[in-house]
Amino acid sequence: MPAHKIALIPGDGIGVDVTDATMQVLQAAAAKHGFALAPTRFDWSCETYLATGRMMPEDGIDQLRAFDAIFLGAVGWPATVPDSVSLHGLLLPIRKAFDQYANIRPHRLLPGVEGPLKASGFDILCIRENTEGEYSGAGGRVHQGRDNEVAVESAIFTRKGVERILRFGFEQARARRGHLTSVTKSNAQKYSMVFWDEVTTELAADYPDVTVSHMHIDAMAAKMVMAPQDLDVVVASNLFGDILTDLGAAIQGGLGFAASANICPDRSAPSMFEPVHGSAPDIAGRNIANPIAAIWSGAMMLEHLGEGVAASAILTAVQAVTARGIGIRPGSHGTDAITAAIMEELA
Ligand code: GGG
């Protein structure tokens, strides 16, 4: 029986709760569909940082390299470790080291879930550039604490980086409804974002079957609220994609439903799957967190591993559960109850 080697990084807060829930569902799906999952757990978190001074060991990336995929819960415990330290110590280095340049985030309403909008028939695939741009980590500070203090943070856009994420978006659009919206702020950011627009126009010639719109990030934020049903594939830079996908999560009913995949498209390294939400320290360990975003991310991982039938079965089970009204409103059902209902449907 084939066994997929999974690196599990539950991380902090509700990351632990939703990772445990996800693994129960994935293992049940594996048993039913004739494959095995061999998880290895890495307890790398803010607690690790407090104990060792690092979010993960020095050879952490090498330890992960041997796995077929990585599943991550959430990162962050701001009461003890600054978010900038935890994010740059774990999540961002993994994305960069494994060239997981395409961050894919689907936004649509599950059956029974009422989002805050009148529109319900939207199905958006946000694709966020995941390795450079505003999160490149290039910059520095001098004269700290003095009145001549300076902080510089450079957003880096390379032709290779911009081209490959746009090509990825065009391919996705081609496989879906054939429309791509490229999001920039090229009226204000006249170097990097004008460059991004130019590359989009250049590449569009290779995809005559895909229609293209250019939108500014501010107009896009309004569009996602006013007319999300008009959107198909949306491609954006690291920061813009990060923000837009929290908006996407909001219109799909909340962060409890927002799944994501950090894909290394040429498969030269493991891809990583994680819910969009963070660690939510206020509800950690209280059996309150909605595990659906994580379980959906787990289904995306199975799809990536070639287990499409099991992935579809999980999504069908999740949809059946939300259609029954389970897990559709914050606090209506606990983590365990939602997980149990999904397992029941799966069986
Ligand atoms: N579930 C992943 C997580 O903990 N996300 C928190 C976060 O702030 N992520 C920032 C990012 O996705 O770049």
Give a description of the structure:
It is a single chain. The protein is an alpha/beta fold and 347 residues long. The protein has a domain at 1-101 and 262-347: Isopropylmalate Dehydrogenase, CATH 3.40.718.10. The protein has eleven helices and twelve strands. The protein has helices spanning 14-33, 46-52, 60-65, 83-97, 159-175, 192-204, 217-226, 238-251, 292-304, 308-323, 335-346; strands at residues 3-11, 36-41, 69-74, 102-108, 123-129, 133-142, 150-156, 179-184, 211-216, 233-236, 259-263, 271-275. The chain has a ten-stranded mixed beta sheet, sandwiched between helices. A two-stranded antiparallel sheet has the order 6-7. α1 links the parallel β1 (3-11) and β2 (36-41). α1 crosses α10, α5 packs across α6 and α7 packs parallel to α8. The chain is globular. The two termini are 20 Å apart. The model has no long low-confidence stretch (mean pLDDT 97). It binds glycylglycylglycine. Glycylglycylglycine is lined by residues 74-76, 87, 91, 242, 274-275, 277-279. Glycylglycylglycine (GGG) is lined by residues 74-76, 87, 91, 242, 274-275, 277-279.
